[in-house]
Amino acid sequence: MGTEKSLDNTIEALLFAAGEPLALDRLSKLANASRSDVSNALETLRKRLAHGIVLVRTETTAALAVAGGLEETVNQLLGDPEDREIGQAGLEVLSILLYQGPATRAQIDYIRGVNSTSSIRTLLMRGLIERTKGESGREVAYQPTVDVLTHLGVTDTAELPQAAELRGSLQAFLERKEEPQEQPAA
Amino acid sequence: MPFAVKLGEFDGPLDLLLGLIEARKMHINDVSLSQVTDDYLGYIQKLEQSSLGEMSQFILVAATLLLVKSRSLLPNLELTDEEEGDVAELERRLKHYQIFRQGARLLARIWGAVPLRTPRKAPLVLAPRFAPGETNLAALAEALQHIVHALPTVIFKETAQVAPTVTLEEVIDRLKDRVMRAAKMRFKEITKDADRVEVVIQFLALLELVKDGFVSAEQDRPFSDIMLQSDTIGTPRYGN
Q1: Shortest alpha-carbon distance between residue B45 and chain A (Å)
Q2: Does A18 sit within 8 Å of B115, measured CB to CB?
Q3: Hey, are the CB atoms on B57 and A114 less than 8 Å from each other?
């Protein structure tokens, strides 16, 4: 008895045994492989898993989850998932992080034209977003978690509704003029 | 007023502005901005009680809106580069924000509708752990011997035959019967063949019969024989 010790098999076993999202850095260390190899192996795994289990991943984290359409049966086993109402402000913050990518609190505030501190705190507390390093490496930025993807029923941000369309208009918009450095008054 | 707004309905100046523009189904440009300026100003006048920080954000945008409005009313009005920049920046922010508002609406539609379930806890690792590194045949044989020695042995317990015992009730009945028939008899005669335990039981039976008044007992002196006499009248007569 023995399975081929390929990287995608190894990662599959690690994610299964973990039973929770694992950071890609962690997978890279455990499987003794580079980040890009892990990333490629995850794509192999994603294509291979096409039955009751799907691979959910963000830029930095991956997890196994029950495929969409089976949740009713699985809910009988695990109980209904908790209610996660977050309101319009929370949805807008998520919209920025999901469609555009990681952003700092100041960037989010500037886009929305209003202070988003409490929305960010709520989203953090519910495990829907997490802290990450900003572009400069010094500031704190926020990014969506695997949890928020599973709550939305998608395995990747590319699966979000009108993802290509909205990202296209964002791209076109941002190319027209560089993001201003000016920040709003607190 | 066709575009009346409720207090507290809008989350910040951009939300308010976009709300006003989208309510008119207009694009974001100079024309739409100057058209909504009055409604915008009407809204922030009712916002007086709000915090100063929130207020300053609304007023900053109001100042830019007034520039747009002034320019549309006074074609000869020249705006400074900085002012032009403010107007362009406001339009830019509104367009950027509009994309995410659209995103938020799309997210709201699928929010929690068909969530994927992640495992609740780590599943069992199925393979049993077995480390055969230091095992050889001799070690296995020794281990087997330990097991054999440790096996519980069957112990046969000695069983004792217990002689049927006489109960006090039986003896009382028998004694009563004999005394009744013989009318008068000696205790030594009854206990002639009896062992020590039986003598004690016979004596207890005797006391019981005397108490119930079936029998009267007589003893001349300590340790001498006891004479038993049936008392058919049935009234208790202790001693004599």
Answers
A1: 18
A2: no
A3: yes
B8 touches chain A (CB under 8 A): no
Question: Which domains are present in chain A?
Answer: 7-78 (1.10.10.10), 87-176 (1.10.10.10)
What is chain A's pLDDT, residue by residue, as a tens digit (186 residues)? 566 788 999 999 898 888 888 999 999 999 999 999 999 999 999 988 867 888 998 888 898 888 877 877 877 777 776 666 788 899 999 999 999 999 999 999 999 988 899 899 989 988 899 998 877 778 899 999 988 998 888 889 998 999 999 999 888 888 876 545 444 444
B13 and A CB contact within 8 Å: yes
Assign domain B168-230 to its CATH architecture: Orthogonal Bundle (1.10)
| CA–CA min distance B157, chain A (Å) | 52
The residue count for chain B: 240
Min distance A138 CA to chain B CA atoms (Å): 26
Long-range contacts of A168-176 (CB under 8 A, 24+ apart): A169/B99, A170/A99, A170/A100, A170/B96, A170/B99, A173/B95, A173/B96, A173/B99
